Amino acid sequence: MDFELPELDRKATQAAVERELEKYRIFKHLTFEEKEAATTSHINDIGGGKGNLTSDQTGSVAIYNVDEKSIRRKYCERIERAVKRLPPMERFLIETRYMADDAEYLTDMKVYCFKFQPPISATTYDKIRWKAFYKLALDLNIARTM
């Protein structure tokens, strides 16, 4: 029985993983603004609208508020579980560079020079990051093959 790991398109996979981690950061660190039902009704003077259709705006808004919170929470938990399964160095890199509050303001150089103790080289950093991206892409089912 032979099992081979897939060959991934490095740039496309990295972009996909970075997009997912940015989405995680937005969902995690920005508050969810709940929709509110309009208190004024809209009266249509011109007949012939959507006949026999009733709308329950309050119900729709309530469902959206509950579902959207749940979707965001589950998404964040899924990303966190995937990152927790990574080896320590890869996990540290992903959490520091991509999942922290200030991740948008950190550069790769700041991470490998100042966050890693002892500091590591840029080449080592790139190797660790690619291994982490590879594993996350496969785990999150966002891998881009060649």
UniProtKB/TrEMBL annotation:
InterPro entries: ArpU-like. This is Phage transcriptional activator.
